[in-house]
Amino acid sequence: MNHMMPTVEPTFPKLDALEAAARGKGRLAVAVAYPCSADSLGAALSAHEESVIEPVLVGPRRRIEACASALQVSLEGFRLVETEDDPIAASRMAVALAGSGEVSALMKGSQHTDELLGAVVSRDANMRTSRRMSHVFWFDLPAYHKPLMVTDAVVNISPSLKDKLDILANAIQFAHAIGQAAPKIAILSAVETVNSDHASGMDAAVLSKMADRGQINGAVIDGPLAFDNAISAASAATKGISSPVAGDPDILLVPNLDVGNVLYKSFIYVGRGECAGVVVGARVPIILTSRSDSRRARIASCALARLSLP
After folding, report:
1. pLDDT digits (tens, 9 = 90+) for 68-84
2. How far apart (Å, rounded) are the C-alpha atoms in residues 154 and 18?
């Protein structure tokens, strides 16, 4: 006799609200660079099906149509800008469409991330701003009481203090754009005490003091905080930490890509969360998806980009 309980699919009400808000703003024109795999093309078409984006497919027509055939979908009605069969050429064309204002966002296809971002930062692309680019993840975690963002788990490997200032500024501007007027930001380190031998803790202390002095505006910032007392008010109280951020952050600023990447995968695979993510700091948002992303995460990333724009 089989007594196994039926599997209950998780629900993501915070993500539902994000996607509904994005759909309410109308479809976002997105150049999808080199969608030459079933995964990457399918992600763009799914986001269109959900009324989030209006994709412009950029790359070799023959390969894109072959992917559509494999997916058993029609490309009738979609704009396709043909390029040679080269991911860098397709990336450059997609960036040119964004630079000319024909689209308002970019989406990675099946090329390597650095091929797309390399086209974005090239001198003639006119896509750079005064700040370094960075990535923001947005999570719906069943165990946390509100959406939680993590930056930067994708782009900046070992950011310096100067880099972290840009990452913070990007995250604050992004939070404002999606409707958070004064996000609470926890600057993570291994421990919450300041130690001159511990570089990430020193960076966190400097950034926190800069915020106290009004050199960083638009957010409530505290650090260094360890992960437990950043997320848990009870943990912070046990350790005698009095902080307006502890137990209630909207954003976690991680010290480096290793920490961010492990945190992201832990949230998804152990925490049973779902996420969205975009690159910010360029003139348009850049939607990066990976082959391991769920269909929901791909649509949500498009929704997050849509919500960040007027």
Report:
1. 999 999 999 999 999 99
2. 22
